[in-house]
């Protein structure tokens, strides 16, 4: 009799335990499904397309648009819903990510005749991953606030390769209370998500990073070119640099010399990657903000001048590491 009672009690306890565990699992599952409501994505270029694809891989339905039909078609073929305008995206999604080339593009997409703010819903979270002037980010945040929406700037670092592998770094500026909501989406596309402060601080961090990147790439290109002219094998020189104090991202991850590394633009006639035009644009942003804050940036200014000259010499659509090729051609003149 005692054994029967103990068996009954144990069975009841086990049943309750399993029931609670199942209920907990269902609750977590329902929260997960609830969080994966449609996400809008505007701007399907070299960076935007792989970013949107990573959201799709993580189970988020995507509603997207782009000015180029071929870009829309590529994402549509992977399962996204495609619409005609940013306003149409805003009508269907309450979380929207934008990835656009420049400040004028951002202003048009948000405040233009068919812009997001024409049909944005109250409470919508707007995340802009473009690299633009911090002042424009603050302007967009104010415009969004008037419509009851929340705007955050979240520019990225890492390039096309990192975008494809979901290993981008996001630098986020905006209302801190909304950071967690933004982080949920950004971690699907990046390995690092860093909160920088108020709106515009994400852009400030990105501009500083890209100025250093440009200076470092020019320095690496000059160094490699000098070493080659002195008779050093480029692979040997790169190896020495990368085990010495001169090591940097441009030398060990994105070397600008053809034949030194595989899987980088220099191994593919400088196709793909981060365009020289975009680098010149980012350096222009650095120059403008430096002027406004009376900050001396002599190397940043020289880098800006070099990349602007490159754009006028046929390098505009090549990866910015083509500065090595530019220097080689300059020495022959």
Q: If you had to describe this structure to a student in words, what would you say it looks like?
A:
The protein is an alpha/beta fold. Helices cover 54% and strands 11% of the residues. The protein is built from 14 helices and nine strands. It has a six-stranded parallel β-sheet, sandwiched between helices. β1, α2 (48-57) and β2 (62-65) form a beta-alpha-beta unit. α9 crosses α12, α9 packs across α13 (298-315) and α12 (276-292) runs antiparallel to α13. The longest helix has 34 residues, at 2-35. It is globular. The termini are far apart. Residues 17-34 have low confidence and may be disordered.
State the main characteristics:
single chain; about 325 residues; alpha/beta; six-stranded parallel sheet; three-stranded mixed sheet; about 10% strand
Outline:
Helices cover 54% and strands 11% of the residues. By secondary structure, it is an alpha/beta fold. The strands form two sheets. Strands 3-2-1-4-5-6 form a six-stranded parallel sheet, sandwiched between helices. Strands 7-8-9 form a three-stranded mixed sheet.
